[in-house]
Design brief:
Radius of gyration: 25 Å
Helix content: 55-70%
Shape: elongated
Structural class: alpha+beta
Strand order of the largest sheet: 1-2-3
Strand content: 15-25%
Distance between the termini: 50 Å
Largest sheet: 3 strands, mixed
Number of strands: 3
């Protein structure tokens, strides 16, 4: 199910207003889906947004970083002539090795106690 797009109002306020009415501003941002740009001497310096909007922003940044990383890995694999199948096989091999290193001795000792 697609999340319904919501409208967010962005307003610009002076820093003095933000300081004087901070409690009210928090309520406006939280309840009204409002984002505020705070200006100091006419220059935008900070943005006040809801935690939900902040988390959405962080998810979008993480997705962008992941996409850049993915493109870089794909370029490197192509340059080295590595196929997707080879990469997946190497990944599985590495996963098994790491699992054995981390859990292998514990599994063997648990099996001995059960016998």
């Amino acid at each position: 199910m697609l999340e319904r797009e919501r409208r967010t109002l962005t307003k610009t306020i002076p820093a003095t207003e933000a300081r004087i009415h901070f409690g009210e501003i928090i309520k406006r941002v939280y309840r009204g889906r409002e984002q505020l740009i705070v200006e100091k001497d006419g220059l935008p310096v900070v943005v006040i947004l809801s935690h939900t909007d902040y988390e959405e922003y962080r998810r979008l940044l993480a997705l962008q970083q992941f996409e850049r990383l993915n493109k870089g890995v794909n370029r490197e694999m192509r340059a080295k002539g590595i196929t997707e199948e080879q990469a997946l096989a190497d990944l599985e091999k590495t996963q098994r090795k790491v699992f054995q290193e981390k859990y292998g001795p514990a599994l063997r000792s648990h099996r001995r106690k059960a016998s």
